[in-house]
Amino acid sequence: MNHTQLQHLLGVLEAELKLAQQWSTQKIAPENLVSSEPFAIDKLSFSQWLQFVFIPRLQFICDEKAPLPVSCSVAPMAEEFYRLNQIDAEAVIDYLASIDQLITSA
Predict the structure, then answer these.
(1) Are 63 and 44 in contact (CB under 8 A)?
(2) Which of these ranges, 8-12, 25-29, 46-50, 79-83, has the smallest mean pLDDT?
(3) Rounded CA separation 85/103 (Å)
(4) 31 lies in a domain?
């Protein structure tokens, strides 16, 4: 059940990122996907990290019906990133909070 709910939330999150104009139509160079920094902040914007790392990883977990992570706390980073960059992405933050809650309470 949680995998199905998570897949739904990931789809809505993608749609909200597109509405907020935070979805890239360009591919990312593979070397930018390798980082030891939290949220790959040294190579990607937070929105790029969501698009190219976070969503694909969680989608893979759902597709494989693999165990969900034991916790998730992405919404606070989203709040900070979008506030600092003056981007109206309240719905994105809300859906990330829902994903955090779903994973952490599983």
Answers:
(1) no
(2) 25-29
(3) 27
(4) no
* Total domains present in the chain: 1
Classify 65 in phi/psi space as left (phi over 0), alpha (psi -120 to 50) or beta.
Answer: left
Mean pLDDT of 59-88: 95
Has residue 106 got a pLDDT over 90?
no
- Determine contact, residues 45/61, Cβ cutoff 8 Å: no
pLDDT over threshold 80, residue 37: yes
Residue 80 to residue 68: CA distance in whole angstroms = 25
Q: Using 50, 70 and 90 to split pLDDT, how confident is the model at 8?
A: very high
Supply the CATH number for residue 58's domain. 1.20.1440.40
The reply to whether 29 falls in a domain is no
Residue 94 resides in a domain: yes
Residue type, 86: Q
